[in-house]
Amino acid sequence: MIRQGELVEIEIQDVSSDGNGVGKIDSQVIFVPHTVTGDRILAKLIKVKKKYAQGRLEKIIHPSDNRIRPRCIVADKCGGCKWQHIDYGHQLEIKHNQVKETLNRIGGFTEFEVEEILADTDLAYRNKASYPLGMSDNGNIKAGYYREGSHQIINLNQCPIQDERLNPLLAEIKQDLQELGIPIYDENTKKGILRHLCFRIGKNTGEILITIVITKPSNYKLAQQAPLWLERYANVVGVTLNYNPRPTNVIFGEETELLAGRLYLKEEFAGLTFTLRTESFFQVNTNVAESLFTWVIDELNLQGHETVIDLYCGIGTLTLPIAKKVQKVIGIEFDKIAIELANHNAVINDIDNVKFMEGKSEVIFPELTTDADVVILDPPRKGCQPEVIEALLKMKPRKIVYVSCHPATLARDLKMLCENNDYRLERVKPADFFPQTTHVETAVILQSTTTH
């Protein structure tokens, strides 16, 4: 029988959905972070339960062929990336298997194919970065990501997964903030002003927004500094302040103030022009998102006469490209700023067959009197509310497109949609929006079993 504190030698046989290596001693499952399938390791057991144990990697006895040298010098400390030690090809294999296994285990699906995972570059892909700010022991400003499992900031001057054009801004603006002498917010005392340093870049246009999150509205020193950043960096088109006074882990507050330039950047996506703000949602991996949305549109084989409803539509990232292919689209989104941007994006792209509605999908969608040929779902990680599932089964659109960032809630919702044979699982396409992490995006197309 294994005991807490014991050193054990194990072989890692798999990788769990939360990214930890999985090994066994007799019938006891052992989870060990920072390992990969094929590693032979020495681990110290730090928690032992009846059915499983958690271990800490002490030594790699024999490395797996899937193990590589991390390309980030703080990969063993920073919580931003969990899989820097895993060969990218194997990362894709793990994610592909995760989607298949979860749809089977939770969804109960048995006869289906998971298509090849969409992927692009495994580094320099993020078009947005939000760095919490802190103070080091010697009084210097820190900006970076939290150490895994804590709120201790790992100080960064560059990050290999963010767009390379943002790296010079991180180090230099951090130094500017140091010289301005504005107090840094302390999570423990709830005192201070500066909370986060945020960047967003248009992957295809190069336009950049700088946003500082603060606890108090307006700031004279930052107002004076903002035009200097605009002058120094040719690609920076706007500097904004976001006001978030709440003691919360949520990064952005509800109010944003323009300091210099404009509130938004322009991005080219799926053949259209989009305006984005730092605090509005947009997929962080532009290239793979565009590939996935193109796949969705191609697979729908739209003929031009269809009516489409897009739930959780955001700024219209998928709504507007689809509007170019159909007769009518309705987009529903809870976030007020996203709706404003969606309407603006429709106007600048001369798209007039789309209607955006502000509100919760679970409230608006069940009350719609419009029938749809296709309904698109792109909910947050928690998945769809029961009211949405019930309304879908009542409306019975010919096809449902479900885009998900969480295989478990995807499988749960698909099971409810398909369990009475109202729909069948037609296509499953995973996409790697988040290389070096455990997260995977999946697009699923459901086909109604009723002839329309």
TrEMBL record:
The active site is at C405. One of its GO terms (molecular function) is rRNA (uridine-C5-)-methyltransferase activity. The keyword Methyltransferase applies. Keywords: Methyltransferase, S-adenosyl-L-methionine, Transferase. Pfam families: TRAM (PF01938), tRNA_U5-meth_tr (PF05958). CDD domains: AdoMet_MTases. PROSITE patterns: SAM_MT_RNA_M5U, TRAM, TRMA_1. Residues 1-59 form the TRAM domain. GO terms for biological process: rRNA base methylation. The keyword Isomerase does not apply. Its EC number is 2.1.1.-. It is an enzyme of class 2 (transferase). It comes from the Bacteria. Belongs to the class I-like SAM-binding methyltransferase superfamily. RNA M5U methyltransferase family. This is 23S rRNA m(5)U-1939 methyltransferase. It comes from Cyanobacterium stanieri (strain ATCC 29140 / PCC 7202).
